[in-house]
Amino acid sequence: MANLKKYTRVQIGHILKHCSRSKDEQGNYIKFGNENINTEITNLNYNLASRHDGLSDYDFIKNRCKELKALNRKDVNIACSWVVTIPHEYYKGAQFADFDNFFNPENENPYITSFFSKTYEFLKNRYGEKNIVSSYVHLDETTPHMHFIFTPAVWDKKKGREKISAKELIDKKELIAFHPALNAYLNKTLKKELK
């Protein structure tokens, strides 16, 4: 249902362009490795994060790294992204026979909307609202999914302040605990059993 990726300064630009569906000089969507993007419904994608700082996602990350005094090394992961895909069992029992009928881009689907809204709520509470870069829901690919991008801030006990450290925030313990915690939260808030 969810997988995590970490990004360095060199890598972050690509995922930000993918998530925001950037366009080239001619106004066409930039093509990425995923050929299953249906650009006719790209306008249905949306961002659940509501930053009001006027910064681009890249500038937000840059400022957050400066604020937290992130090391200026090529190997430092300055952002992380959880990609959360809506599980098939979430819509089982609904009035839809298959996923193609379940997701009809012509109509807003309350199952999809509530799933991603509650997932965003969980991630915001877990990683802190001030660390959220963006949270794009993509409805224009084969399966609806969300890219939740955040800066990995942790408390530095020695210096008595926050710092950037994906290694400390997303350790083995966090990876083991994440899926059960997300499932429990969604089961409780959506009142639908997910596995």
TrEMBL record:
Example GO molecular function: DNA binding
Superkingdom in the source lineage: Bacteria
CDD domains registered for this protein in UniProt: MobM_relaxase (cd17242)
Signal peptide: none
Pfam families: Mob_Pre
Gene Ontology biological-process entries: DNA recombination
Membership in a protein family: Belongs to the plasmid mobilization pre family.
Protein name per the record: Plasmid recombination enzyme
